[in-house]
Protein 1
Amino acid sequence: MEHLRIQLHGVVQGVGFRPFVHRLVSEYGLTGTIRNTSSGVELELEGERATLEAFVRALPERAPLLALIEGIETVYRPELVGYQDFQILTSLREEKRNTLVSPDIGICPDCLRELLDPRDRRYRYPFINCTNCGPRFTIIRDLPYDRPLTSMGRFPMCPDCEREYHDITNRRYHAQPDCCPVCGPQVFYCGADGRRVPGDAIALAREAIRAGGIVAVKGLGGMHLACRADDPAIAARLRQRKERDEKPFALMCRDVEAARKLCAVSPAEEALLTSYHRPIVLLKKKEPGLWHLSENRSLGVMLPYTPLHVLLMGEGFDALIMTSANLSDTPILYRNEEALEKLRGIADGFLLHDRDIQTRCDDSLYMVLDGQDYPLRRSRGYVPYPLRVPGSRGGILACGAEQKASFCLSRGEFVFPSQHIGDLKNYETLSHYEQQIRHFERLFDRKPELLVCDLHPDYLSTAYARERAEAEGLPLVQVQHHHAHMAACMADNGLNGPCVGLVWDGTGYGSDGTIWGGECLIGDYRGFTRFASLRSIPLIGGDRAVKELERVAFALLREAGCDTAGIPDAAHWETMLAAGLNCPTSSGMGRLFDGVAAILGIKAVASYEGQGAVLLEAAADEGETGRWPLAFEEGAPLRWDWRPMIRTLVAERDADVPAAVLAARFLNTLLDLAVALCRRAAEASGLRDVVLSGGSFQNRYLMERLPGLLRDAGFCPHVHSRVSCNDEGISLGQLMIAEARRARERV
Ligand code: ZN
Ligand code: ZN
Ligand code: FE
């Protein structure tokens, strides 16, 4: 007999780990104890040496689905305790916390079966969960992950639940949020006036929705507004009440079959839809239409991920509009009182419950490209799962960008990207951002010793980083926006060496103080050169041109020497341009999309960011193979001169070539441009690895074609799969660059 102490690090709490170990211990006939510590899980075991060794080998092989064992330390000790059985000890709080936190997990098949089984004691109970599913990140206040430190702390278990909780053979053995109708949270329904309505809350909500109402529904990480998806008048009412103009709505479909009625679903898309992450997946509409839901060719679809959603959808609806309940870009609402107050006049009813959401977390948004998951928004169901960055020393807080804010905190080799935060220009969003930074620092027990932010002097994330660096006497690194995009895609793909970065987005502050965004960089984490860009585009009226696409169209036409007669404000804009009055220049690819969309008559004034690009993609004729020749201005950086393209485009438009054909030719020209730039960059550098990042690569038309074209041309293209290509991914890149600079300066 020998005594073995085993320490496990990684995602080992809140994922059914202790029960799993308990069963394994019984199987191997060992005795001892297990306890959660703030740095993971600690086991004290006694048995024969060979058995103990076999047990240690079995641990990682048979660990639960969500567990991620990152380290196993074993120490044999000379003296025996003489355990009689195996016991789970109460958690100890420790100074040093290395534990990870599990993301929220969509309802599992076992719980789903019980939910719909009339003989089960949790039949139709909307908070059924087990060690394999249920709320995690959104209900955790602090570590260790034990019921009193979650929103479930105020619901003491009934004797039945208590029995399950302590029964090793039970699926709910040591499931912290375990509960039942007797002891757990309750769902209730309020009418438009916020008063509780007696009766079956879910049935009441369903009736209100069926009758055409808009009902606020409390989910895992915040409130949704739900209504029928099959009636354009209801969708229009929701848009009007929510002031959501034209942005696409997400749908919740009852199941994959229901999703298939509206959209094509590939096997990889089905796997992602039904995965425990349950993100919104952008699926291609079966046929054009459903414009009241989305003006794009795709629809954002998710499946029910909580038992409450299952019950709401289950017997009534194939698909519901399920849009985040927030007002004009403020963060998603997540508290009952707040929802009742702020959604007054918007919601006709409220399906709420008394389990508090501790941390708001929006739905994640993904696309599947070539069978690979492609994140656009990494949030609920993924956060706060870390990325591992071998060699990282930790202690860096990367503050991200501004409009799609996120941050990253590193602790040792783990980098923890935050959930989707939103646009910091909004006051509530900014305080949510600051609050989440503090929450992550407490949860992962790491105070930053180095801060990193964007180069943009006016980003609120820059202001945050500066103030904090000053207040706490911390060093601050500022990173150029597109370099950070490039580094994010490198880290996403585990690349360390130099490569070509094709970074196309709307706006980013350049090293020279001008606005960049159509960039081809060569470099690595340590630095970059700006190899190529676009010929600059004047933005008439600065930021106004970002919304008023017709201003960009005018500038493109004028620069290209095309006829601008008949444009209403031409004379005024001409004066501004001629005088250089409030006309900063931009090399943003997003601006070119905007301008072309306006020239083609697709959109003159955008109602949301990126709308020009979205509509061009939606308009493009997929079968069109035409393209326009490219022209360059030699120099450093090399500049793509888009003026000949604009002239051809205008000539073809005036010859009545349909907009769908022209939109496709424009996108095909960009594909040619991408390949041509990589060729030139490779000639200059000898590099074949190409990373694709920046918000313009959210475009499905480009992304379905570009990696293949690059491979055909002999390149090794790398796309995002773990963080978003848009500004949400920036914080990861910032962190990598700061880590590289710190390493270099110490050398
Ligand atoms: Zn379950
Ligand atoms: Zn109970
Ligand atoms: Fe960007």
Protein 2
Amino acid sequence: MSRLNNRHIILAISGGIAAYKSAELVRLLIKSGAQVQVVMTSGAIEFITPLTLQALSGNPVHQHLLNPQAEAGMGHIQLARWADLLLIAPASANVMARLAQGQANDLLTTLCLATDAPVLLAPAMNQAMWQDQATQDNLQTLQARGLQIHGPAEGEQACGDIGAGRMLEPNELLAAVKAQFSQGLLDGKTVVITAGPTREAIDPVRYISNHSSGKMGYALAQAARDQGATVILISGPTQLAQPEDVTFVAVESAQDMLEASLKTGSSADYFIATAAVADYRPTIASEQKLKKQNADHGLTLELTQNPDILTTMSNQHPHVIHVGFAAETQDLILHAQDKLKRKGVHMIIANDVSNTDIGFNSDNNQVSLITSGGVEDLPLLSKHQLARQLIAAITRIPH
Ligand code: CTP
């Protein structure tokens, strides 16, 4: 899998004849798996049409800083936060000057100030403009601020001059972008995650379930995807949006979740069970809605134990690395160590659900990692921060 898979790249195009090469660059970035948003200055649209870039990137092109319509969609701050990397190609002498001054007088310069992402510049201009002291001073200022400059190359220019000022070729810029992203920890791996609650039908309108929100499993799915994994998320009903670029399998009951999980067993490298599976289901799910009995009679439901999905997976697919969660209210570590052995898994992530600040519906969680090698306590973290740490910990499990 490409290391640009799902990376968010803003390609900002300023005015210059080299803008025609930016179309090819968008194509290469998309082909490498990146998601691309294109920003164009007013100068850029004199050289290449926004429609071309829209067609190639699959997204509307961003042109204006204060356009109410654009701000209602992905506004400039949102766009700045969205980016994993901002590449300005071509970067004209004018753009370099405005950036060196810290101006925010159009969308491109504003994004550069607003983003935390690395900013790469691919200068392109006439060789005399490049050599001019003003441009060279601006270059030094930008480099000192940590912006990365790629090129320009030497050679024959569109104006007939020969010298330094040509924009690097699209494949060279693609390589520069790729070099910004280290190899994902899970490149080429398939990670299967169960998440959310299960619903066990009593009749067509009623069920037994629990309060699991699914947040931990969904956060893990995103973190595994960001590390380059192919992710299959098998989820019971939740209120959460499906994570992007993840294969999503919607299930209801524990039995459905087991069947969906077993299907993935031969292709999975990791199986992470975050689902709060109902331990029991009604032995018979009534085909018709149950009617109320007379007031003297209660209702007795006979329950049957559900299969243990994690144990079944670890028995049937021993080549897969299995990770389970243990939600406990007492003797956390002892119960978790017992589950590690009983379920035949490589790691149990244990959390104390008697503390209402963490676990279940909370956005935060504090866990201990239990393996045959010992116990590691992690600090209180948001579920997204924790997910990133857990994915890193899981990749360290010896296979
Ligand atoms: N699990 C599972 N299938 C089940 C029950 C649990 O795959 N039928 C998984 C959970 O997703 C979790 C781990 O097993 O990763 C432990 O779940 P937990 O509810 O804490 O454990 P139980 O086996 O149900 O044990 P107990 O209820 O006795 O604590």
